[in-house]
Task: inverse folding
């Protein structure tokens, strides 16, 4: 078996699986991202600073731009969709830091972000208990849920 064949098999296997991504995204123009990490006692999986350069791909080539805010993100991804992952993330990451998120909300915008990539409609669901929904609301976080379906697999 050639190396390319092995990669194709892995890609084909994963292309028929569901994936879920859970994240806390924090933006601020006045709060240093190191302060966010210290307050939450979590290291970000991605961050950038106000003034950092980034590149946009456009029809006419590449465009260099500068971020106008600081950004801090903590993300976990799973190659299956089990509603337990969402409940565990809320309990482990948010509930244990509820007061810290409330404090952060005074200086920053907070988004609880859920992205689901599904291959079957029957797996495409998210459910928040009243308690979980109230917890997210009480922290001041916005809730953003995006669902995507692979039409060639349905």
Result:
């Amino acid at each position: 078996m050639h190396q390319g064949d092995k990669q194709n098999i892995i890609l084909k296997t994963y292309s028929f699986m569901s994936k879920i991504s859970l994240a806390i995204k924090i933006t601020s123009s006045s709060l240093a991202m190191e302060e966010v990490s210290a307050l939450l006692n979590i290291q970000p999986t991605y961050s950038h600073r106000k003034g950092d350069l980034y590149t946009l791909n456009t029809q006419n080539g590449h465009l260099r731009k500068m971020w106008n805010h600081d950004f801090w993100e903590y993300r976990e991804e799973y190659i299956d969709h089990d509603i337990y992952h969402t409940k565990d993330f809320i309990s482990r990451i948010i509930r244990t830091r509820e007061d810290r998120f409330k404090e952060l909300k005074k200086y920053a915008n907070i988004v609880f972000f859920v992205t689901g990539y599904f291959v079957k409609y029957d797996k495409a669901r998210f459910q928040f208990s009243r308690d979980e929904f109230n917890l997210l609301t009480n922290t001041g976080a916005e809730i953003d849920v995006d669902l995507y379906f692979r039409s060639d697999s349905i």
User: Anything to note?
Assistant: The helical segments are 3-15, 33-40, 83-94, 98-105, 130-138. The longest helix spans residues 3-15. Residues 19-149 form one domain.
